[in-house]
Amino acid sequence: MTKPSNTHKPSAGPWASALRSLLRNRAALASVAVLAFIVVASLCAPFYARHIAHTDPFVSNVAGTIMLNGQETDIMQPNDNPLHLGLSPIGPTGHTAYLLGADSQGRDIMARLLYGGRNSLLISFSAAILCLVMAGTVGIAAGFFGGVTDMVLSRLMDIMWAVPVYLFAISLSIVTITSGLRIGPFVIEADNLLIPIVIIALVYVPYAARPVRGRVIALRQAEFVTAAKCLGVPRWRIVLRDILPNVSTTLVVMGPLLMAMALLAESALSFLSIGVQAPAASWGTIILDGEGLIYTRPMVAIAPGLAIVAVVLALNILGDGLRDALDVRDASRRE
Fold first, then answer.
1. What was the pLDDT predicted at 334?
2. In 90-222, which ranges are E strands?
3. Membrane spanning segments where (predicted)?
4. Which of 66, 143, 152, 179, by CA, is between 20 and 30 Å from 85?
């Protein structure tokens, strides 16, 4: 006769439960697959340019030629007007070389698209992480300590909130684009990617700090925090052991949304020539290159635009999936 087992399977933690919930979300998994594909493709930009397209996407090639169907074809071709005045870059070839055509400088659009993705994704990801760190610090400090600290930080955030995001970013970019950024003994050159990263992260801090502050204020009144204070636990330990783990879910949910907004901001700044500087490329600078070719070679501007749309849409879907997976109100259903 077998005895009934008294062992009880321990319940999974909140992060494990959230991961299982996220894995059941097909839309979120599809968005992760899209993002992974774009990231891997962008990382392979040097390999594509050197071994597949056999081109340098940063060197002008207006006098170059390529072989198409056994015939030598000029990269810059006469316009289709009756007098054949002016030159237009070659359009999509369907071959490995100049797959999406060339820009006004005779550079391979596909290769520049992949290189531009490296910079755009790096800037948006880094800006989102930096913004979360700054917003988390400000929100926790304002919500937990209260008093004068809360008043000063909240008023500072209100001032930054009152300025439109793109106007604020453009103003900072114009100031730093001429002479770079000087922080004490450190000098960041104007063409360094750290400048758009810092600017974009800074302008979105108020939007991320407010939800964190509200969450911390609610946690500050929780019983476990009150008990820790009564036991004489140091404030820094309460923040690290009790407040930060409960705020981390809010920060994780905001991550994809902040990255999407950072990508749009970077593209806008680069399109205005105050973001990524030549000879580097980003999706915004490629759209700027295609502005004058929108009627003759629209693919120059359409290709990076579609890449931006795909990444932003995937990030928003992933953010929705993370919000549903980490929503504490759904904890009982996940259990």
1. 40
2. 181-183, 186-188
3. 27-49, 121-147, 159-181, 193-209, 243-263, 300-319
4. 66
Tell me the domain boundaries of the chain: 110-334
**289 with 103: CB under 8 angstroms?**
yes
Per DSSP, the residues of 198-222 read: HHHHHHTHHHHHHHHHHHHHHHHTS
Cα 68 to Cα 78, 80, 102, 303, 316, distances in angstroms? 17, 20, 14, 22, 41
Per residue in 184-201, is it b (16+ CB within 10 Å) or e — as a string? eeeeeeeebbebbbbbbb
In whole angstroms, give the CA distance from residue 35 to residue 41.
10
Looking up tokens 């992060």, which residue turns up?
15
Q: Which long-range contacts (CB under 8 A, 24 or more apart) does 184-187 make?
A: none
Q: What is the pLDDT of residues 182-217, one digit of tens each?
A: 777 777 787 888 889 999 999 999 999 999 999 999
pLDDT value at residue 7? 52
Angle at 116 between CA 268 and CA 109, to 5 degrees: 105
- Give tens-digit pLDDT for 5-64: 555 555 556 778 888 888 888 999 999 999 999 999 999 999 999 999 889 999 888 888
Q: What letter would DSSP give residue 48?
A: I
Query: How far is it, in rounded angstroms, from Cα 245 to Cα 61?
Result: 54
Question: Would you state the structure tokens that stand for residue 229, as one six-digit string?
Answer: 């204070």
pLDDT value at residue 335: 39
* Confidence (pTM): 0.88
Q: Are 222 and 151 in contact (CB under 8 A)?
A: no
Strand-pair category, 186-188 with 71-74: unpaired
| Structure tokens given for 204 | 């979105």
Identify the architecture of domain 110-334 in CATH. Orthogonal Bundle (1.10)
Residues of the chain with pLDDT under 70: 1-13, 80-85, 328-335
**The tokens 């002016």 sit on which residue?**
86
Please work out, in degrees rounded to the nearest 5, the angle formed at the alpha carbon of residue 164 by the alpha carbons of 203 and 155.
Answer: 65
